[in-house]
Specification:
mainly alpha; two-stranded antiparallel sheet; 3% strand; glycoprotein; transducer; GPCR_Rhodpsn
């Protein structure tokens, strides 16, 4: 009996070590990539097109998600007691859900903007401006925050479970949990169908149009990059939404409880992967992004090499 117990403990320990080994490089890689994306867009005036304004705002959302990863990792190793208080519990869960909704909205509206640019270019010239794009991005953040606001009521530190930060019993019994689960799934399914329709129409338009124009070639390249980003989004978040993190399993059914925990862990890894992988996709798919990023890297490297001030060198 004791041997079985020790085997289970070692199995769980090996699993947690493996997840930690995956999480830490993923977080560092994602933080670096998203920070560079934000810097490239805002320090290079020629990169401030509507497409890259959306992508830089998405990078802010992904950056916030990755900054919450250490808390998620801490909860894996020590789910209780939660050391940071009720407010930190609510805000961390709210921010995670808000950024999730925000990223989905950004991908959807960016794809709609590309649809206008490819299929209705004259209309796009009058409707799509930098100022309107910035206002729309602000509205997307506001809409995501309002959608995620119920999380502030749903989660908290439960004293019954030795101060664990989790979904409350009130959320489950009041129906708020079910409503939020439906909303979360709608945030995935509705954009999924919109994206499928939009990219079908874009593909049809580009297929029927001759490839002589340079602008059409640029559209094809941009749509190809966004198509890969959308594919990565679907692959990473399909499991997240099929194993919703707000599930409230019957703790008497131990098998299903632990199965759901493992599935939620896989969903969590894919969730953070989706926040970290976008800058790599930009780098692989966009020549313009690479050309904007390279001078940034070179100037930083030259400054760090030639600066005799050790403090300035450390900051580089």
């Amino acid at each position: 009996m004791r041997r079985d117990s020790n085997d289970k403990i070692m199995s769980i320990l090996h699993f947690l070590v493996g997840v930690t080994i995956v999480y830490i490089p993923l977080m560092l890689f994602g933080l670096l990539g998203n920070i560079l994306t934000i810097l490239v867009v805002w320090l290079r005036p020629h990169m401030r097109s509507s497409t890259y304004l959306y992508l830089s705002s998405m990078a802010v959302s992904d950056l916030l998600i990755l900054l919450l990863l250490p808390l998620d990792l801490y909860k894996l190793w020590r789910p209780r007691p939660w050391p940071l208080g009720d407010l930190a519990c609510k805000l961390s869960m709210f921010l995670s859900e808000c950024c999730t909704f925000c990223t989905i909205l950004h991908i959807t509206f960016l794809s709609l903007e590309r649809y206008l640019a490819v299929c209705w270019p004259i209309t796009a010239k009058t409707l799509v401006t930098r100022r309107r794009t910035r206002v729309l991005i602000g509205c997307l953040w506001l809409g995501a925050a309002i959608s995620a606001a119920p999380v502030l009521v749903m989660v908290g530190v439960e004293e019954i479970d030795k101060r664990e930060c989790r979904c409350s019993d009130y959320a489950a019994t009041s129906g708020l949990l079910s409503a939020m689960t439906i909303l979360s799934n709608m945030y995935f399914l509705i954009p999924f169908f919109i994206l499928g329709l939009v990219y079908s129409l874009i593909g049809r338009t580009l297929w029927l149009r001759p490839q002589s124009s340079r602008k059409d070639q640029s559209h094809r390249h941009t749509v190809k990059m966004l198509g890969v980003i959308v594919l990565a989004f679907v692959l990473c978040w399909l499991d997240v939404h099929s194993n919703n993190s707000y599930t409230h399993p019957d703790k008497n059914a131990f098998f299903y409880y632990y199965l759901s925990q493992y599935l939620n862990l896989v969903s969590s890894v894919l969730f953070y992967l989706s926040a970290a992988v976008n800058p790599l996709l930009y780098n692989l798919m966009s020549t313009r992004y690479r050309h904007a990023l390279l001078p940034q890297y070179k100037s930083s490297a030259i400054h760090c090499t030639h600066d005799s001030n050790p403090v300035a060198f450390a900051n580089c």
